[in-house]
Amino acid sequence: MARISKKDLKIKKTEFSLLAPDASTAFIAGNFNQWDLSSHPLKKNKQGVWKISLALDPGQYEYRFYVDGEWENDPHCHCFIENPFGTLNCLRILE
């Protein structure tokens, strides 16, 4: 029988998506990548939905999309937290 480590049980594949058919670039930035605007590009499908799947540990993650040089919040997100810039970051909680 194969042994499963505690680390294998923690990490969850988490999908983020954004409908933006007219956009030419889309990235996700958050506390999981030190708000790096270029490290996590999303890929656009034929329906104009940008997607990325990230392997994340359980915890709270603040994030936003960066689309064609403009910040956008996730329309699927229902939980937000104020950021130091007077706007809101999306909040995803993984258990």
Name a few traits of the molecule.
5% helix, three-stranded antiparallel beta sheet, Immunoglobulin-like, five-stranded antiparallel beta sheet, 95 residues, mainly beta, globular
**First CA to last CA: what distance?**
27 Å
Total separate domains: 1
Describe the global form: globular
Oligomer: single chain
The CATH H-level superfamily is Immunoglobulins
What's the architecture in CATH terms?
Sandwich
CATH fold label: Immunoglobulin-like
Order of helices and strands: HEEEEEEEE
- What portion of residues is helical? under 10%
Low-confidence stretches: none
Rg from Cα? 15 Å
Mean of all residue-level pLDDT scores: 92
Instruction: Give a short account of the largest sheet.
Output: 5 strands, antiparallel
Number of helices: 1
The percent range for strand residues is over 45%
What is the CATH level 1 assignment?
Mainly Beta
Tell how many strands the DSSP assignment holds: 8
The computed structural class is: mainly beta
